Each structure stands twice: as C-alpha cells, then as structure tokens.
Write the structure tokens for this entry.
Amino acid sequence: MSNNKASFIISGQEGRLIKTGKAISPGHPSKTMIELSESLTAREAALKIIDSLLGTAEKNAEGIKNDIGTDFIHDFRVSLRRLRTLMGQFKQVFPKDTVDSIRNGLSSLGRISNSSRDLDVYLARKSEYMEMLPKRMRPHLDVFFKRLDESRKKEFGAMQGELDSETYKSTMATLHELIKNSTRLPETRNSREPAKLLASRFILKKFKNIILDGSDISDETSDNDIHRLRISCKHLRYLIEFFSSLFPSRETSQILRQMKQLQDRLGTYNDLSVQQRYLNSHIETYGRGEKDSVPFLKSLRNLIAELDFEKDSEQIAIVKKMSRFCSRRNIRKFKQLFSSEKTSI
C-alpha cells in the first residue's frame, strides 16, 4: 500500500533520498524537504515542490554571494535543474507562457554557473591528473592549474555579480508570484488532475523513452547520444524523487538506488568528455608563448589520452548498467509501481 503522507529529504548531492520527520536547519546548503499527500491536485503538488526548491535555491545563492564554499554552487545548480525539470516535464499544469518565462530564466541562471562548476571539477581532480602522468611530466602542469585557479576566481566573481542581475531577481520574483497568486491562474489541461495519477503517467512515459534509446547503447555510441540519455535519466529520477512520497517507499528507494548507480556512470562519462574537450581547446592557447611549450603540450596530450582510457572503461560499464535497466524484470517493476492501468512498454 502506498503511504498517504510522508516527508523526504532530497539531497543536492544528486540522488540521496532520506525519509525524515525532522525539519531542516536554516542555512543547510544541500537539502530540501518535500511533503505531499494523495489528495493533492497536480498543480497543488507542483506548487509545494516549487516552494521547497525555491527556498533551497535562494539559500544556496546566499552561500555563493558570501563565498562560503564550492558546495553551494553545486547545490544551487541542482535546485535550478530540479525546478526547470518540474516545469518542463510535469506538462500542462501551468499556463504555457508562465512556464516558458520561468524556464528561460532558469536556463540563463544555469548557464552562468557552468564554467565555475567545470573549473571546480578540474581543480578537484588535480592530484588525479598528476598521478596519470609520468613524474617527469607533472611539473609542466603547474602553470596550467595556476591559470585554472585564476580563471575560476574570475568566473566565480562573475557568477556572484549575476546573482544581483535583473535575470536572477525577475526569475525568483516570478516563482514567488506563481506561488503567492496561484489561484488567479487560469486552469490548464492537467492542473486539476490527481497528482499521483499525472506523476505516474509522466514517469512511465519518460521511462519508455529511455528504454527505447537505452536498448541501442553500445561501445560505439557517440558522446552526444550518451549525453542525451544522461539528461533523460536525470529527468526521470527527478520526477520519481518529487513524487516519491505518493508511492511505496521501499520499492521507490530501490528504483532510485538503481538510477543513481546508472546516472553516476553516465555523469562520470560526460565529465570525462567535457574535460577532454576543455583540454583540447586550451592546448594551443596555453602552449602559445611558453618557453617549455613542447613538453607542456605533450603533458596535456598524455593527459587527454589517459582520460580516453577512463572513458572507454566507463562506456563498457554504462552498456552493462543500461542492459540491466532495460531488462524485462525492471520494466515489470516500473509498470507495477507506477501503472494505474495496463500499459505497453
């Protein structure tokens, strides 16, 4: 039997779902509590989720402004992605012009944090990068990492400034206005649908699309196709997390653990692809004018080659994980948990 009412903590660290009865201490950078009941309409449920995620985003924005730590950047990005996913995947719950305006604003805010996030990843992997290279090559990367650190400071400063921009202020204001004046909004096709019924429908639809795309994954699949699959899996996991309190907690937790494992692999692969592209794009720039540019460039090329070995290994793991995810057993599990009627997948 499904729980009538439950509280969950959704972690900004991508995927931890913790059932709890405790309130979250103010200023916690990475967790948002969502509480839903089966009596809610789709719009009522969406508004509760938006209210919760909006509060988390704004707390993290304050952490970024005060430069408390890099986790606030990550958690800010996650909050924005979750908001954008809800507005985009939980369709026809709000008027289209409202959804488009909010999603465009969230996209702009997400883009301003991309560079800072990527640079944080590179700097965090400095020791790993060094270990990948022969000892004689490691000193040549020191200048590279110093420049990365300088770039990160500039990008972070720009992002702090963007949090005082009109885009940020207007997007946050629009979301607050949506919550405050929701009763004035015109009804839409799905606004009065039961939240659980509509969530089930969209979860299964997204799952079906992933099965169709994921069944073709192989060690020859392109980076772009894996990236698209990663985004689809992320959308599916967010949808399940949003509405998890409306479904049996044990089965839902099992599915989320499975998705977390798959998405970790997809995320690692994507990070490696981004890192390779970044290193390739900077080989000429960073090498130009350096006295020891030849050994410097050689060290970067060696690093790119090592990352390629990692990518190959991750892709093999993704194929195996995806095969299990697309299995008949897993399809049956999803249908049993989220179907209110017979569906074909």
